[in-house]
Amino acid sequence: MRRMVTGVALVVAAAVLTGCGSDGGKKADGGTDGAGAKASAAQTPSPSATATATGKAPAGKGAGEGATHEVTLEVSGQGRTQIMYNADTSGFEQQTLPWTKTETVRLTGAEQKVGHLVTVIPGSIQGADGMLQQAPCVIKVDGKQVADNNGGKNPKGCSYQLK
């Protein structure tokens, strides 16, 4: 009985896998593609697929479009702490305070509509009272302060939706 169930399961799995993702080899004009055309299309991602996978516009058409902003992330205090950030690049690093990172962020068309999240989340430092607290952080966009964590009193760090 166990062999029969295993055999049936294998046949069902093969049938499901064979049917998944198949468009029957049909082209938009009603014709069919050969195996060579399918293999070539599978190996070369479309520009829109490349943009979706990387989050950036592909080089060439559309790459020059989009607003650019100078984003400055700042963490103040003394000593060393972990800092997690996201602007044009992202990272999680041990840094000596005070710390500043400035990047130029180019927004894609979609990011101009829905936004691009810029964050800096500093680790703990010793406060004036000897207790640990989150290090103070600030986000500036084009020289204007747009976010802070109230001198380290907000444990969520700093974040800003850049549009």
What is the secondary structure topology, with strand pairs?
Blueprint: H1 2-19, H2 35-43, H3 47-54, E1 68-86, E2 90-106, H4 109-114, E3 116-122, E4 124-126, E5 132-134, E6 137-141, E7 144-148, E8 158-162
Antiparallel strand pairs: 1-2, 1-3, 1-6, 3-8, 4-5, 6-7
For this entry, give a set of tags.
163 residues, alpha+beta, 6-stranded antiparallel sheet, 4 helices
How would you characterize this protein structure?
By secondary structure, the protein is of the alpha+beta class. It contains four helices and eight strands. The protein has helices spanning 2-19, 35-43, 47-54, 109-114; strands at 68-86, 90-106, 116-122, 124-126, 132-134, 137-141, 144-148, 158-162. The strands form two sheets. Strands 1, 2, 3, 6, 7 and 8 form a six-stranded antiparallel sheet that branches. A hairpin with a 2-residue loop joins strand 6 and strand 7 (144-148). The longest helix has 18 residues, at 2-19. The protein is elongated and about 50 Å long. The termini are far apart. Mean pLDDT is 75; it is low at 4-64.
